[in-house]
Amino acid sequence: MLSGVAISALVLGGAAACKADSGDEGGSSNAACDLKLGFFGPLTGDAAGLGIHMRNGTKLAIDQYNKDNADCKVALTEYDSQGDPAKAPALAQQAVGDQKIVGIIGPAFSGESEVADPIFDEAGLPTITPSATRPSLSTKGWKIFHRGVGNDTSQGPAAGRYIKDVMKAEKVYVVDDQSAYGAGLVDEVKKVLGAVAGEDKIQVKQTNFSAVSTRIISSGATVLFFGGYYTEAGLLLKQLKGAGWKGTMVAGDGVNDANFIKVAGDAVAEGTVLTCPCAPATAAKGSFLTDYKAAFENAEPGTYADVSYDITKIMLEGIKEGKATRADLLSFIKSYNKAGTATGVTYKFADTGELDPAEVVVWAFKVNAGKVVPDVEIPKA
Length: 381
Prior knowledge:
By secondary structure, the protein is an alpha/beta fold. It is built from 13 helices and 13 strands.
């Protein structure tokens, strides 16, 4: 941890940014210059598919801003956590040590948030996560924490309702990967399901699922809910189907990525249901979809790309208004109350940093013909 003296120096150091003085109308003369925003999440490793789309949303927003403010640009610094909580503290220390970093998009995952956010909080470095959904993150008293999507008290019960009301499953088996995210999500699902046919825990990076596959099949479950990320989900389902299971996997946003299909295979993944506390990025508002495809070789925006774009624009709007220090940008974020141009969500954060519940949506997606496609918005209880 940094000492109080060091932190004071870092916070004050943010004020060293210059301000443009172009004299242009429309407020450009107030913009803070020579500042940086950080993206914190997995860009390599088993979960990189999720992080790359979020980083791309952030990069698109910054590139567009810099095109419009060529004399007063904002730089992007990437902190590749690989989704690993063990790597997060050192990366967080790097970020707070760079006096020009005034805001962080992320951390992307809940586990890394639990160990990185205390460091950001001590340094007064504001964060908005596009995807870390563990509910307890907003109960830690971190002043810098903000969440641009609903948490798992929204996603978990919605997944449970989908399993009960839409799939009408009578026997459900649950498995989690023991991560902060996966275990927490399964806990919320079980609150809706009540008694389950059985439950198991696996490990991140586990590759042999023969024992758990046998127990799932023996339970008679027709639905498996998995709490974790897409690599383990794909391998588990591949081995489970290979052992003769005929049921359907349901999983959360950590699996909602095209790489899940690559791991499992098209035939195995077909029909899998994936939830997300977000609307489909491919149905984003405005020019986001066209702009994203143009910027990234015609790629479809993945889960949370549109959220990352919108929350990055919140920070950029603050910088445009001359918020040159971490403290000033933090105050700007806390008072924000506008709709995002890509998601259409009104970003207004409660004292805990949570998105206004009225703005939270949860969608079910399905794997169909080798693609993750929208199914239906899951109604609130």
